[in-house]
Amino acid sequence: MRKAIALLLSAWIALPMLADEGMWLLPLLKEQKIDEMKELGLKLQDYDIYSPEKASLKDAVVIFGGGCTGEVVSPDGLVLTNHHCGYDAIQTHSSVEHDYLTDGFWATTREQELPNEGLTVTFIDKIEDVTDYVKAELAKDTDPNSMNFLSPKFLNGLAKARVGEKFLQDNPGTEVEIVPIFDGNQYYMFTKKIYSDIRLVGAPPSAIGKFGADTDNWMWPRHTGDFSIFRIYADKNGNPAPYSKDNVPLRPKRWMKISIKGFDEGDFAMIMGFPGRTNHYYTSWEVAERRDIDNTVRIHIRELRQEAMLEEMLKDPKVRIQYASKYAGSENAYKNAIGSNWAINKRDFEAVKRAEQEALVAWGKQHNQPQYEEALSALQQMVSDRKELRFRKWMLDEALLRGVEFSRVPTQVDSLKAALQKGDKEKTKAQLDKLRTAFERFFDKDYAPDVDRKIAKVMLAEYRRLVDAASQPAYFSTIDSDYQGDVSAFVDELFRKSIYGSQENFEAFVSHPTIEALENDPMIQFALSVKAEQKALNKALQQFDDGYSRAHHTYVEGLMKMNDMADMWPDANFTLRLTYGQVKGYSPRDCAYYGCQTTLDGVMEKEDSTNWEFVVPKRLKELYNAKDFGPYGLENGKMPVALCATTHTTGGNSGSPVMNANGELIGINFDRNWEGVGGDIEYLPDYQRSIIVDIRYVLFLIDKYAGADYLIKEMDIVK
Length: 719
Ligand code: ARG
Ligand code: GLU
Known about the structure:
binds glutamic acid; eight-stranded antiparallel sheet; 29 helices; alpha+beta; eleven-stranded antiparallel sheet
């Protein structure tokens, strides 16, 4: 046994850093990876990619919305991202009459470009290592239990203090943020500029932008044209400003060149973007926890929720549009959780992480640093102690907070009650107007009460089956006491009685508002009870989570001391990163090999007019049959669609620019392969691939399919 471990250890320590693993911070490229990148074929210098002084490639890479990446591709502020990143915007502008999801959308003039409330594009102006500054500030804190070292509020306060109020006032749309990396062992400050007038310029129909939909999602070989186009608007001085007719297209510092010269298997490729979250520094116990609690609950609950949702969507075209975005979001994380568990088991991630832990314990012994072994025992203990609470939290989150939409009805009615109490007509009216706004935000155009009702019955029944009665929100006891345990009757009654149950109920309440109606409202009671349980759970978990975060900080500190920092990358945290590798296919299993490039032939092979996921638009078939590919086709006469590369990406990297050795755009990242979904925990070079829409397919669709060649004219195309 000893021997086996020793063998495992030496093998692990001797293993060279795998070339394609890692999400690297730009300021460290020069000391960490630039030489390896050049060996792989990169023709640029580090300062072409990132420079603190002058415009570089990084200035063309933006955060798109709240969770995607985009790239600027014209001097007039055009931004490319994925169709699934623009999906909310496209869906919001859609109705049964103007169905841009189904038909696509193309603005033929700037006046037709559609504004999007709430959508932003964020540039990263500056990145600084502020570790010394933050640590000096933290040292002033004498509370041994302080969690300031990870607190966004505390750290962002430090960021503001560092740049000063005046700087922020003088620079509209500018924000500063300090984020911990390596579990709070280092800190970086990001200065961001946020534009809030972002307009929809173009999107292909879903039959192209979402071709293959859920069946193909997280899968290679892939045939999706997953892109959409937006434009950034600014005020006359180029500063961020809220939407206004008078705003003008932004003249960006930098935009990307686009290459239609193509590439070969083995060519260098790199991606810049905003990967959201990885758990590379998990211990073996956290791997098991993720599998047995987080992923398992998610998979089970979403399966039930999606089944009920899809049934309604397929029945009614209006519901199909209303729930399209909700369904896609749910399904995406659901399938990811399945892939994650598959990898955890198949590739034995527990053993991989155990080997890392054991190496650190051995190193600690050698160097007389027992704190690392202690931190590991603490982690093991805490993961075990929080088991039951964590299960309850995941059940509450998935089944009730996400699963039941009416758990989010407006519950703040105290001011209205006070106004009614006093008989103050004017205040009552003002409060009722407020409540209407909140109600309309909940009961928006994408809310279908009958769908919520149906799903809620399924969610509540399953939640009650799996969670101890004593650990459920208190209000649930009425299901037994007043409804003989009949969940369905309970939910129907909620919809019948609540002021939020229907538009009519709400209007009836507004015309005769009473304190009793508010106090006895069953949906308000339901929502308050769920929230109370959420709060209690969070508080109970906090006990473990604080100690856990401190122990994890120590564990990662140990890894940083033991390993060569040139090869260490901090877990993703939605900050700007670079990953590099090669355009390359892979062998998913014995005897099978997947190439690195798909073509339109594959779209036609997958076509199935009886399955909504694989319908091919007529116009695309015409272009295919006529081989009318313009300058975008391959030498062999085929039309490229997607490619895959060994780059290390995760959620948030959607929409990220994929660049060749010259830093020219060759594609837009949009997904990862099934065999690589586990890469958030452990990157496997033989199995993991980024899935990328070929920029030539994007241009072909804009130019030939949509006839929007005026957009192509704005771009810088390298032939
Ligand atoms: N899996 C990709 C990502 O994580 C694409 C998601 C959009 N597509 C979908 N069918 N839901 O976001
Ligand atoms: N589709 C993901 C996104 O929206 C990227 C795929 C991945 O997780 O690698 O960011």
